[in-house]
Amino acid sequence: MADHTYDIAVVGGGILGVATAMELTHRFPKLTVGVVEKEKALAAHQTGHNSGVIHTGIYYKPGSLKAQNCVTGVASLLAFCDENNIKYDLCGKVIVATREDELGRLDDLYERGKANGVAGLEMIGPERLKEIEPHAAGIKALWSPNTGIIDYTEVTEAYGRKFEKNGGEILTDHKVNDIKKGSNGRVTLITSQGDVSAKYMVNCAGLYAHSIAHKMGVPYDLRIIPFRGEYFTLSPEGQTMIKGLIYPVPDPRFPFLGVHFTRGIHGDVEAGPNAVLALAQEGYSKFKINVKETLATLGFKGFWIMAAKHWKTAYQEYYRSFSKGTFTKSLQRLVPEIEKRHLTGGGAGVRAQAVERNGFLVDDFRISQTENAIHVRNAPSPGATASLSISKGIVDMAEEAFTL
């Protein structure tokens, strides 16, 4: 007999998994729901290592799942925070063009933001930019006054408390090692702390979403390739130069936003990230290597197609990873007064980048179904911002798929 038995088991204790579990218990209070998390605490990976930005929906293609969920998700997130006394700050963001060839892309971002209903968006010149960010330099910028900052670990913990208040159970330190389907149709999660039985499962395993899905019969037509984003923290002197969020105009060929400055909700300022291939799914340092996971990445056809297409950019990112001077020069495009001495030790996050077998970098949410299971195979930024909105969509899908 299983150690724990539920109607629905949610694998993954990041912000999206816990939001989904909370929504399930809210909408279906008679169901028993458990969250199965391999770490000793919630939000231990992508959620707890991101920049803490509350996105408004500027970057996303109108009509995409990202765009739809971001705009509705922001409103839901802020309402939840107000109700639960969670601190946030709508400090605003500037996206700065520093070269003439970026102006067209900046105009495109403005049009996307307007199409997505982003409130308060404004195209500004150098004088207005200096009023908002006195140390930033650019020939034109996009000002988003409602972009904000927050601690998503704190948000996830609040979701967890509400989920438990609704009768849900959180199993931390339960790593899923295997999944078996019983003759009665139930799913058994074989974990490091015993078996967990459920009628249905929702896979929100983030960096390991493809692995969990594969255990349920999903082919490796898509894999999560881990990219480490490395940050520096600014010294106290450097922090005084940054009022809010300062971003470059992104390259539309990539799902990464380029190195930027992010003021955190706790007062620190981060500079970065670059984006380099991690040699482990949870490779938060240059020297963390998981041979099995790296070989699995290298054995995936889509990785090599992607690498052949983008090798020049990858080389530049790796060079910057090992050269503080090069990293500093990238930052000086936005804030010329920043110097190498302002960059102190920082942290890193790992982005779960979904890549298809044809090398395509998946840049929107990707959710699929197998019998008795739903798999969130890709939930990139603004996954945290839009967590309440995305979770509603997942539960809508579960209601139909599981006939709840």
Describe the 3D structure.
This protein has 404 residues and is α+β, with helices and mostly antiparallel strands. The chain has two domains: 1-52 and 151-219 and 364-404, FAD/NAD(P)-binding domain; 222-356, 2-Layer Sandwich (D-Amino Acid Oxidase, Chain A, domain 2), CATH 3.30.9. The chain has eleven helices and 22 strands. The protein has helices spanning 15-27, 65-83, 103-115, 126-132, 152-165, 209-215, 236-239, 291-298, 301-322, 324-332, 387-401; strands spanning 4-11, 33-36, 53-54, 88-89, 93-97, 122-124, 140-144, 148-150, 169-171, 176-181, 187-191, 194-203, 222-230, 232-234, 245-248, 260-263, 269-272, 276-277, 343-344, 348-356, 366-370, 373-378. Strand 10 (176-181) and strand 11 form a beta hairpin. Helix 1 packs across helix 11 (387-401). The longest helix has 22 residues, at 301-322. The two termini are 24 Å apart.
